[in-house]
Amino acid sequence: MQVDNGGTTARQPVVTVIIPYYQREAGILSRALASVFMQGYEPAPTVLVIDDASPLAARDEVAGLTAEQAARVVVFRQENAGPGAARNRGLDSLGADTDYVAFLDSDDTWLPGHLARAVAALEAGHDFYFSNYRDIGSAEGGFEARQHFDVRAHEPVPGLPDVRRYGGNLRDAILVACPVETSTVVFRRSAIGAHRFRGEFRYAYEDLMYWFDLAGPETSIVFSPVVGTQYGEGVNIYRAAEGSTMGRLRVTVGSTMFGAGVRRAHRLTASQAAAVKARLARNRTEIASHILHRLRRRQSCLVPELRAYVRAYPASCVLLPIEVAGRAVRWLTGRADNP
């Protein structure tokens, strides 16, 4: 509790942290939890750990906490359904007193001051906060390394020198080069309403779809250029998918589902519609190359993934065969590299 100048007690904002958990290495979740409690935020956050049928049980990791810390952790175990569904379980399990919700993946850690900075920004009347972050093996922040945007183009929040008000339309950035990383996000509970992660996004892009849903014109968005999260190495569906042919196809299908889903669910500006169109065209080219690659090697195509692609983007029933045929002709005539 905090005492104000009038001598009365003022209720401190209550934060709930949601951690989806699926890991094979001991100690990863323990580090994430330690980084939450090392924030020194009072009252200590409640942490909802959703064990998504992890090979290494979350309860074993929680057992290493102090009794006081363990009392703040609630573990749910469910059949494996992916990180989006795990986060939904957490969102559906928030306590009635929760003011702000924070996301943290189980293989990531918060740096000191992250939570206090986020709450101060939201208490200034804003709805959605994200921060800079540091990738695995990188010495610089992700904003700088990926050149997401020019921080100087966004005005500082008065009284909060390390926080800036996001100027412009965040949805534009989400479609091109999303600056929002899940483990940096803290938001006002009342801002999410009935929004949930889409269950059909199992391998990728469930987070971008969620940010796009939340980042409407009525949402007040702030961010900090200060690095608030260190990304770690553990089981990561997106990174694992990127490392294999089948996984890469799943990521491309997810990207298509995201683009087509945004177009169906939202009224887009002209520039947003153009960005979606370009995304769908790039994905169509990549999938056509994938099909030719497998046919050339007399390998069967990955039918479930292609079925999901067509279901998400029905126009591909016409456009994809044209793309495949065109690329095959260019390859046969020597105008393109071998698929």
Features:
339 residues, alpha/beta, Spore Coat Polysaccharide Biosynthesis Protein SpsA, Chain A, 2 domains, ten-stranded mixed beta sheet, disordered N terminus
Brief account:
This protein has 14 helices and 12 strands. By secondary structure, it is an alpha/beta fold.
Write the topology of this structure.
Layout: E1 2-3, E2 9-10, E3 15-21, H1 28-37, E4 46-51, H2 58-62, H3 67-70, E5 73-77, H4 83-91, E6 100-103, E7 109-110, H5 114-123, E8 128-134, H6 142-146, E9 156-157, E10 160-165, H7 170-177, E11 186-188, H8 189-192, H9 206-214, E12 221-230, H10 237-242, H11 245-265, H12 270-296, H13 303-312, H14 316-332
Parallel strand pairs: 3-4, 3-6, 4-5, 8-12
Antiparallel strand pairs: 1-2, 6-11, 7-12, 8-11, 9-10, 10-12
